[in-house]
Amino acid sequence: MIIRFLGTSAGNPHPRRMTSSTLIEGPNGALLLDAGEGCSQRLVEADSWSQEVRSVLITHRHADHHSGLPMLLSGYKGEGRKAPLEIHVHQDLMSPLRSWMKTLKLDDEHQSCELSWLPLQEGIFTPASGHDGFIWRNDHLPADDYGGCHSLALNLDGDRWVFSSDIGSFASIEAYLEDTRVLVLESCHIDPVTAVSGAMKRGVERVILTHVPCNLEPFPVEDAIWAQDNMIIDAASFPREGN
Ligand SMILES: [Zn+2]
Ligand SMILES: [Zn+2]
């Protein structure tokens, strides 16, 4: 399964990075994990524009995680996309997002494809892209803040990968790291050094750091690499312990 980092920046403009968005290949199409500004541009660059994205997951309400959604839907509308698309988002955030899309005439009524909005819930996550996943709410936002923020675990080529999204503390993902081989850690609101060290203690083999704060250039962190926009990783061959 190929993972492509489309946007690796946080909430402010960066000269070389778009905001948070990751394309994760699945058996029945790709899952777009968040749709930050510039994700459409990156999808075009990746030749993954129309055919691949089957499911979109929006983790929380902050603009750097969904501000690319209107252009994504505008592009699909413009090209007359036929393949169905589903958007997973917490119920409390779904209404305002759908209302925004309706204002732009980008909602389901104005799309050429079947567009489904599905309420994101904690627990087993089985999107149409065919992934086998699990979702939980983390501590980046309180639950009453448009449903809070969500982390995701996926089975990719037989290994457990955890995608943190924004977190307020390492503690809110720690209990979910058991048997996790790779952690993709959004590091904007935490100290990456402490978090990576905590992940290693829980048995995680590799950490990929992303969501770089705009005032911080990536610096060496032991046992971790920093993602860059358009970085591609093959989950099956991503370095294993000892490699
Ligand atoms: Zn963020
Ligand atoms: Zn956030």
In short:
The protein is α/β, with parallel strands linked by helices.
**Total individual domains:** 1
Structural class: alpha/beta
Distance between the termini: 19 Å
- What count of helical segments does DSSP give? 5
Just name the CATH architecture: 4-Layer Sandwich
**What fraction of residues sit in β-strands?**
25-35%
Give the key terms.
243 residues; alpha/beta; Metallo-beta-lactamase, Chain A; 7-stranded mixed sheet; 14 strands; 19% helix; globular; binds zinc ion
Write the layout of secondary structure elements.
Layout: E1 2-7, E2 21-26, E3 29-33, H1 39-45, E4 53-57, H2 69-79, E5 85-89, H3 91-103, E6 115-119, E7 123-125, E8 133-137, E9 150-156, E10 159-163, H4 171-174, E11 180-186, H5 192-201, E12 206-210, E13 224-226, E14 231-234
Parallel strand pairs: 3-4, 4-5, 5-6, 10-11, 11-12, 12-13
Antiparallel strand pairs: 1-2, 1-14, 2-3, 7-8, 8-9, 9-10
How does this structure look, described?
The chain is an alpha/beta fold and 243 residues long. It has one domain (2-122, 131-231): 4-Layer Sandwich (Metallo-beta-lactamase, Chain A), CATH 3.60.15.10. 19% of the residues lie in helices and 29% in strands. It contains 5 helices and 14 strands. The protein has helices at 39-45, 69-79, 91-103, 171-174, 192-201; strands spanning 2-7, 21-26, 29-33, 53-57, 85-89, 115-119, 123-125, 133-137, 150-156, 159-163, 180-186, 206-210, 224-226, 231-234. Strands 6-5-4-3-2-1-14 form a 7-stranded mixed beta sheet. The protein has a 7-stranded mixed beta sheet with strand order 7-8-9-10-11-12-13, with helices on one face. The mean pLDDT is 93. The site of one zinc ion has 9 residues, from loops.
